[in-house]
Write a structure and sequence with these properties.
170 residues; binds zinc ion; alpha/beta
């Protein structure tokens, strides 16, 4: 499958038996959760997803993709383009308890009521995780003065010097 719209849900076990590779796209406009937290979220995103059974017999869904969204710079308040890249290795589990038994290099993904993986939700969740905690321009591109304190966490500014506390103890 190439340059096709990716299926929203898929059976990861049947797909692994066929060592299926899905090379396709999602429309960013369908990602409601992502749209809610970005200024610009449109066009298509290419994602490559592979299904396999690993040496230990575990079912694996791995994939990667890259896209660009518009975010508001927390330093100067202008909208800028942020690249979001995703890269995941997941293993589907039928019950939450099974997640604890997975090797640390796999994250668990829960199956829906039909025993399928929701690829669209999965990709959207990965994109949400890829958004920086404090979105901002590269320093050279930013409109805010270089010595501006915008974008710094308030706690960072007011954090007491740990040595002052030591002094008080003496
Ligand atoms: Zn900026």
């Amino acid at each position: 499958m190439k340059n096709l719209k990716l299926p929203i849900t898929i059976d990861p076990f049947k797909s692994a038996q066929r060592t299926l590779v899905c090379d396709g796209y999602f429309d960013l406009s369908e990602f409601d959760r992502l749209r809610a937290v970005t200024e610009k979220c449109c066009g298509q995103m290419n994602v490559k997803i592979q299904f396999k059974v690993d040496e230990q017999g575990l079912n694996v869904v791995s994939g990667s993709g890259l896209t660009t969204v518009g975010l508001t710079c927390q330093r100067c308040n202008e909208i800028f383009e942020q690249k979001l890249s995703i890269d995941f290795q997941l293993s589907p589990v039928k019950k939450a308890e099974q997640a604890d038994e997975l090797p640390s290099y796999y994250d668990a993904i829960e199956l829906d009521e039909n025993g399928e993986v929701n690829l669209r939700e999965l990709v959207e969740s990965e994109l949400l995780l890829a958004i920086p905690l404090i979105p901002k321009h590269e320093l050279d591109d930013c409109q805010a003065p270089a010595n501006s304190t915008w974008g710094k966490l308030p706690e960072e500014l007011d954090k007491p010097n740990p040595f002052d506390v030591l002094k008080q103890l003496k």
